[in-house]
Amino acid sequence: MIARWRSLKMPTLGVAVIAALALGTGVWAQGKWVAPPDAKSLKNPVAKSDKVVAEARKIAETNCVACHGAKGVGDGPAAAALPVKPANWTSPAVQSETDGEIFWKISNGRGPMPPWKHLAEKDRWALVHYIRTLKK
Q1: Residues 63-79 pLDDT 10s
Q2: How far apart are CA 45 and CA 103, in angstroms?
Q3: Which of 1, 2, 59, 77 has a 20 to 30 A CA-CA distance from 38?
Q4: Which CATH number does 33-132 carry?
């Protein structure tokens, strides 16, 4: 009986606790996402080339499209389920950020955006170049 109760109640309880913590405490109530001042001055050490951008596009297709969408406008299939809309990479707001700010955000994440530090540093810098190609 106890094992049955645990199998029925614990997952539900776990989901309820996570939801309460995430939604009830305002974790998802995010203001403007600003990278720290030292990130603004970071320079992209990866030289931009067609090959780098093509490789970064593949990385984005594998890791980013689900939320940011195929065109980078924040309309991926997973975006609808997120409490915060993913960034529109084509927007003037994103495009006006420095390479260092975009790199920092990719690396560190926030809220539903996970940190991508497990990607090689050169790949995260390459993603910055790719994001720049999406300018409106």
Answers
A1: 999 999 999 999 999 99
A2: 11
A3: 59
A4: 1.10.760.10
